[in-house]
Amino acid sequence: MAGVEDSYSISAKYYDDEYAVKQDLVDLPFYLDLAEEKGGPILEIACGTGRVLLPLARRGIEIHGIDNSAPMLAVLRQKLLLEEGDVQRKVKLSAGDMRSFRGTAKYNLVTIPFRPMQHMYSLEDQIAALETAAFHMDRNGILAFDVFYPKWDAIVSGIGEEKLELEWRLRSDPKTIVRRYFRKDSVDKINQYFTATFFYRTTEGEKLINEEKEPLKMAFYTYPQCLALFKLTGLHIVEQYGSFSKAPLDNDAEQMIFLLRKAS
92 lies in a domain? Predict the structure, then answer.
């Protein structure tokens, strides 16, 4: 099927449990409030396992999710089977690449939550992803997405160092602990991305019983670069924030969050 990849096959297994314990992940209320304000239908690009999508559907909002990771979509489809019929009927899922997907519907709100734009590494891919979003917005539609505000010292430091980031107990066996470690492998300052590796190590007591790893590559953006991308794709800023509590986008910002509309 076009637009489907086996990417994130390791992360998909752990995704819901690992991000359930991530204390600084505070984006969900922002997207829930925005969805209730704008109303459906909504298109969520790169919906993953439904961390944002399912809470919206539970609030009665019609939502269409697309993703190019077959393992992520498989997890989401299994979770959807456990939902009430009213929730299931609010959700439509499609396999598709955010650079090339073209559906037939237009949406009041298009979202790209939790940094999928940072998996667009070239100018061509970044433009293509924003053009996909713009194509699916109705006349007064809004695009909302977030990327992290680059911390330059942190980006270029710690290469080769392995750090424990998260740990959690398996629901099926509380004696078993999974720990996620992060190792930054390289930084490309010219093309503005870094590569890294996630290590998932499962232990019973002190005994290591399983280890899996998955590569990570993330682009990072400057504010003027975002403005240029918006100009190239016919979008203009309606609102912008430096946090999910809607703090100003200034030198204290840790996020860059944009609400965009197609230029008239």
Answer: yes
Q: Taking residues 80-97, what's their average pLDDT?
A: 98
Tell me: do 113 and 208 sit in the same domain: no
Q: Give domain status of residue 6, yes or no.
A: no
**Same domain flag for 145 and 24:** yes
Compute the distance between CA of residue 258 and CA of residue 249 in angstroms, rounded to an integer.
Answer: 10
* Contacts made by residues 24-29, CB under 8 angstroms, sequence distance 24+: 26/244, 26/245, 27/52, 27/113, 27/114, 27/146, 27/244, 28/52, 28/55, 29/244
Reported as a single tens digit per residue, the pLDDT across 171-180 is: 889 999 999 9
Query: 248: cis peptide before it, omega within 30°?
Result: no
H/E stretch holding 201: strand 193-204
Neighbouring C-beta atoms of residue 101, cutoff 10 Å: 22
Q: Residue 180, SS3?
A: strand
- 173, 215: one domain: yes
The answer to whether residues 66 and 44 touch, using CB atoms and an 8 Å cutoff, is yes
β-bridge mates for residue 187, sequence order:
194
CA 107 – CA 103 distance, rounded (Å): 11
Residues 138 and 239 placed together within one structural domain of the fold: yes
* Nearest alpha carbon to residue 53 among 23, 73, 24: 73
Q: What is the pTM of this model?
A: 0.96
